[in-house]
Amino acid sequence: MKISPKMKKALNDQVTLEASASNSYLAMASWCEVIGYQGAADYFYVQSDEERTHMLKIVHYLNDMGATASIPATKAPLSSYKSLEGLIKTALKNEQTVTKAIHKMVEITQKEKDHSTYAFLEWFVNEQVQEETKFETILQKFDLLGRDKLAIHEIDKILATDAASPETAA
Ligand code: FEO
Fold first, then answer.
1. Cβ-based neighbours of 19, under 8 Å, separated by 6 or more
2. pTM
3. Quick check: 22 and 55 in contact, CB under 8 A?
4. How many domains does the chain have?
5. Measuring from atom 1 of ligand 1, which residue has the nearest CA?
6. Cα of 150 to ligand 1 centre, how many Å?
7. Across the 170 residues of the chain, what is the mean pLDDT of every consecutive 10-residue run?
C-alpha cells in the first residue's frame, strides 16, 4: 500500500502545521507564565504537548506507509499578546487553519480513493471539532464574566482546572 506524492506532501505540510501549533502554544504558555496567568500557562503547556503528539501521529503514519516524514523548521511564533482574550482568539484562528487543512486532506483521500489515509484522518477530523469548541467556550467566558481583573482571574482559574484534566475540558 502506498500513498500518492500529493498525499505525502499534504501530510508533511500537516507535520509543519502541528509543529508550528505546538511552538505557538508553548510561546503562549510562556507569555502567560511571565504575566502571571498561571492557569492559562498550565493550560497552554498542556496544549503544546498535545500538538506535539498530533505531529508525531502523522510522522509515524508517513513512516509506516514508507513515505518518510520530513521534520520541518518552523517560523518563530508570536511571543507577546495584548491580552489573554487576544491570545485565545489567535489560538482559535490557528485551529481553524488546521481544520481547513485536515478537511483538504480528506478531500484528497476521497479523490484518490486512499482509504487508509481517510481512516487515519478520521481521528483528526473529530479532534478538530473538540479543539475549536474548546477555544470558543473559553472566549464565551469573557462575554459571560467580563474583562476586568477579577473576571480574568476567574477565567485563569477555570483554565487551571481544564489543564489538570484536559480530556474533560471543553
Ligand atoms: Fe493539532 Fe490543535 O490541532
1. 51, 52, 55, 71, 72, 74
2. 0.95
3. yes
4. 1
5. 51
6. 30
7. 94 98 98 98 98 98 96 94 97 98 98 98 98 97 97 98 76
pLDDT score at 145: 97
Closest atom of ligand 1 to CA, residue 98: 3
Q: How far is CA 37 from CA 40, 63, 146, 149, 153, in A?
A: 5, 39, 16, 11, 8
- How much is the pLDDT for 165? 85
* Ligand 1 atom nearest residue 18's Cα: 1
With residue 165 as reference, give the H or E element that holds it: none
Ligand 1 atom showing the smallest separation from residue 95 Cα: 2
Q: Kindly list the protein residues whose Cβ atom lies closer than 6 A to any atom of ligand 1.
A: 18, 21, 51, 54, 95, 98, 131
Q: Residue 51 sits in a domain of what CATH number?
A: 1.20.1260.10
The three three-digit cell numbers of residue 133, written as one number = 469548541
pLDDT at 164: 94
